[in-house]
């Protein structure tokens, strides 16, 4: 009986991990495209998603009671990505060799058959085979053009906008100060005008590049609808029915890479999660930098310097209990104290020219990190204290007896000995921080951040910026997205990624701790 | 020692001697042992002192910052419960020859006021206490004004001595002529006088609103006679500007005389108060007709005359004041026979004398009333509480206005002196009662606990009862604990007492990984994967706790009797789990299959329909069952780890003694180990409880987040934590909602802190007990 309970728990854990693995890893595998011909004459082409018993149907009749969910894509033509088909309604099912899957930048995937490829209105390739070949050869060039446009928009124009904004703020600042404003203002305005000219030049360059985007591809979707796609909206062309396992693996790797390094598309439901990964990592790093010294100092104080008495044990209980305080409460504290009190104060002191738009007086990565640091502080304190408690008394006494001062003993003996447990605490803290979402939701995480908190503009690190986070990504895409069905596989993958990070960190902590235990078990004095 | 004390700058050295000992005696070495110069020793000691101070300071700072969490939250909550205060800013006499004051209007900065009197209007500066200018009402000729009543923000209707009425508007033009200097210039603006009483008798009682139906005027044109006038400008393009006037007269069968009138802001309902304490509710038809809807006695004492009738913001609450000083609030509620009737909601603290004036807040459901003795009360409609008593005037208050921002009151008493009172009351809607007691909200049929913080319209009544949220938190916690406690306790018992150590080294990290699973992952799986599956196979889930133990027992029995000895000996004792895992998987499959069967044979094929029909419950896809499972999943490792610790730490001689006396391992576990570890188990459950109470993401993602009060497993709920996460980003800083959410956080903090402290104390005591065994 008791074993059964344990077994149940274990099944749940492994089942959960397996579920996430299976769903998350399968996402990038290009499934075959089937064509279903229905009794009423309709044709539906798409990838098979799932098969289930029709709800409310009689289980005792064999066959014909299942239905399948097909990803038919072409949201712009059919309205929905997915369609349920009763198996009993299918008369024919085959895998057409010329059916291809196109990942688009907008409107999700497209499934269809190539009719022709045109360039500047002239037909350059006709028919599915030739068209596909031509399409694939054209794509790199189209991508290059797009990348060039993107580089101008983000790089040059971004730079111009940034400097214009900075100059405008400069004017406001001068106005607030009121000193010799008019004279300086004229100079700055001239600079702004100059930037405006540069802007015009750059946008002309973009227009020039855009003229190159002349290629189109015409396809027919299932049901005979024709659709012409400009080449620049095409991300990738896959013909899953003709690719072998190796080809599919390559596509798989390519998509996995896109997921890890790319920017999100389509309200986060497609493309990559790089900004979220970046945000998570940066958040955890800032938090670690803050929490480690403070946590360690507090632990050393409690264990080595403070007089051991009732007060210290009360403090210790309080610290312990703090670990059990809900994370959302820390978030609320972060909002009340960091954002509105400290951040609002900073804004009034240093950025009056930007008000009423807040700079630090709103959620940002710094405040989120500080909140998380506070949240994970007990973890580090408790772990460090444990490490300190485990140092054999003899070691410390020997050091003191040799004439070392208390600081020297602490620094040279206690700290190195406690280092593994500090590490354990830190890793646990990082694992907790990486997986925590609730306090972030109110202290600065956003669905889609316009810019990373780290970039090429001075001062390079923008701690006041809002950021994206893997955990919030899961919540947002899984629950707030308008097209949950299409987004779900992506969420599984994100979940898997988050899970890997957290489990990896936790296992790291466990291993460090085990090694530590062995070490002390051996060296007990 | 002497050498040390001679070293410069070593004030800390002696202290160091004491502090550094930590029970191991004086530790400073004789200088001869260490070959060091005095100087370097001094540096070392200084460094030591510096380090000590740094660490002490740092440690203290960290501990203080932890305490600061509590203080910051409390500081944000405190203003909610701060008693409102008032300050009498100014009093000055209006000119004697300006006539009797009838009505007042104030600008939103409380810098100027317009006072309508029997002979015109006065513009007063509220800062300096002077009259800026005097004006007469345009277009009324030589007749004097006899009555005035407010018909919305800054607009009034004046009843004239010749049976006519005129609408007037006070306008406050705000300009900023110089940098930062605000200038408010009051002005009045009047409409065309309208003939209300053809006989030309003075209009002593009149009321009006201007809305979609045009200008609607109601006036008392006799002791029991009402006249309704609708003046509508036609909108057609051909005859633009033509007005169409419809007049209706109606005698109402009342005993006394009409003493007070009120109209709702849409012009669809008129209310008349009588000298016998009755309120008559009349419907106004689209065609301008009047019809009595109901008549009720609205005062408790016999001889009270109704002196004040007024609607609060949004026109859903009626305030009735009488000549005995009684003030009550009324709403139209469906009664038992499904009829709409006025029902008394609250009786407010009465005035000592007759109520003479009333003014609603333009921001919330607050209002002010004043009486014959000059007392002014600030009250709040939702809670029925009187928040503040502001003594002001010396004699009977004639007219009273609450400032547009509800932060001040301007009133004029009978002697003609004007009083300007500042009211500091940023959170009138919050009292202990509105947070924790049932409240009769506007539009509800009875008092209820409701959480609804924002609404679509400006006149929305915030319903900020924390009870549904606390209820939701406890409900989720309860279901999670129901699931988690048995599983985790049994699992811990097995792990610590029966399991083979080699398997244990496997299981513990697995459980720790389980503890580390981010709650957002659990919430996602629960909301998007488990909930739809659960929806299909709920009966199977209910069967599982019956089928699984049965299967396990059967498997154990089969194992004992059927398995060949060779196989049994190969699988060591303590490795039973190897067999149990497949057994359980089989049990799972079986119970879902049986669940389907059960649904077919007994529940009519669709259990959801059955639940609805047989039990009267609705089924939400994201329900408490799902949350219970997911949150239980999050809590299991916590309870498991702590229980396992306390079981494993039981002194081994207890177990050995029991076994030596011939008890079986099972008997030992149940009779000896469990009782000895019970405080530890208690603290484990407490800590698990604390975690479940504060869990946010799972609750947010796996329930529908509807704040309903219902124990049903098939419904969702809204928990305190999820509510904070959802609403805090949208709550304006320092606003009422913002502070109430901080209060919710404080509640969570206290709940978990209390529970954890209790657990910690129990655990410490347990440790002591072990050491004494």
Mean pLDDT metric of chain B:
81
The helical percent of chain B reads 25-40%
Mind telling me the CATH superfamily name of the largest domain in chain B?
YVTN repeat-like/Quinoprotein amine dehydrogenase
CATH fold naming of the largest domain in chain B? Methylamine Dehydrogenase, Chain H
Biggest interface, chains and residue tallies: A-B, 97 and 113 residues
Low-confidence stretches of chain A: none
Annotation field: number of helices of chain A: 14
Looking at the overall shape, the CATH architecture of the largest domain in chain B is 7 Propeller
Number of strands of chain B: 31
Q: What is the gyration radius of chain A calculated from CA atoms?
A: 30 Å
Please give the alpha-carbon distance between the first and last residues of chain A. Answer: 43 Å
The parts of chain B where pLDDT drops under 50 for at least 5 residues are: 1-34
The biggest beta sheet of chain A reads: 6 strands, antiparallel
Q: Assembly state here?
A: heterodimer
Distance N to C terminus of chain B:
46 Å
Strand content of chain B: 25-35%
The computed structural class of chain A is alpha+beta
And the CATH topology of the largest domain in chain A? Answer: MetI-like fold
Shape of chain A from CA axes?
Answer: globular
Query: Strand-residue fraction of chain A?
Result: 5-15%
Number of domains of chain A: 3
Plain-language structure description:
The complex is a heterodimer of chains A (525) and B (773). Chain A has 525 residues and is an alpha+beta fold. Chain A has 14 helices and 13 strands. Chain A has helices at residues 2-26, 75-78, 128-177, 181-211, 245-261, 274-305, 310-322, 327-350, 365-390, 393-401, 406-435, 438-443, 470-480, 484-523, and strands spanning 34-38, 43-53, 66-71, 82-86, 90-94, 99-104, 109-119, 122-126, 215-220, 226-230, 234-238, 264-265, 270-271. In chain A, strands 6, 7, 8, 9, 10 and 11 form a 6-stranded antiparallel sheet that branches. In chain A, helix 1 packs across helix 14, helix 8 (327-350) packs across helix 9 (365-390) and helix 10 (393-401) packs antiparallel against helix 11. Chain B has 3 domains: 2-70 and 72-80, no CATH class; 85-424 and 431-451, 7 Propeller (Methylamine Dehydrogenase, Chain H), CATH 2.130.10; 467-772, MetI-like (MetI-like fold, Orthogonal Bundle). Helix content of chain B is 40%, strand content 27%. In chain B, helix 3 crosses helix 16 (736-772) and helix 15 (720-727) runs antiparallel to helix 16. The interface between A and B is large, with 97 and 113 residues.
